[in-house]
């Protein structure tokens, strides 16, 4: 299932304006203008933390990391 706009924060603090193209219990995929984060980079989407697991032609996919971003 896809969704709407999303703000993805990269490890260096830069924010990427994205569009959610797929979301599941274990991860999500996004389209983005400009370069995608590198595979292995840790990013945050809202209160969720994820690791970039692949790049796509015009975006990237993340796997959620449990235990990060929770207080």
Features of this protein?
single chain, 71 residues, mainly beta, six-stranded antiparallel barrel, 6 strands, globular
Helix content: under 10%
As laid out across the biggest beta sheet, the strand order is 1-2-3-6-5-4
Averaged pLDDT: 90
Give the H and E element order: EEEEEE
What does the largest sheet look like? 6 strands, antiparallel, barrel
Radius of gyration over all CA atoms, rounded: 11 Å
Global outline? globular
User: What is the SS-derived class?
Assistant: mainly beta
Which residues sit in consecutive blocks of at least 5 with pLDDT less than 50?
Answer: none
**Gap from first CA to last CA:** 28 Å
Q: Helix segment count?
A: 0
Give the number of DSSP strands: 6
Strand content: over 45%
Topology:
Layout: E1 5-9, E2 15-23, E3 27-32, E4 42-45, E5 48-56, E6 59-64
Antiparallel strand pairs: 1-2, 1-4, 2-3, 3-6, 4-5, 5-6
Explain what this protein looks like in three dimensions:
There is one protein chain. It contains no helices and six strands. The chain has 71 residues and is mainly beta. The chain has a six-stranded antiparallel β-barrel. A hairpin with a 5-residue loop joins strand 1 (5-9) and strand 2. It starts with a strand and ends in a 7-residue tail after the last strand. The mean pLDDT is 90.
């Amino acid at each position: 299932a896809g969704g709407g706009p999303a703000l993805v924060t990269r490890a260096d603090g830069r924010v990427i304006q994205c569009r959610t193209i797929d979301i599941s219990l274990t991860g999500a995929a996004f389209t983005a203008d400009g370069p995608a984060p590198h595979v292995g980079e840790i990013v945050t989407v809202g209160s969720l933390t994820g690791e970039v697991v692949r790049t796509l032609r015009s975006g990237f996919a993340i796997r959620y990391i449990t235990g990060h971003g929770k207080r």
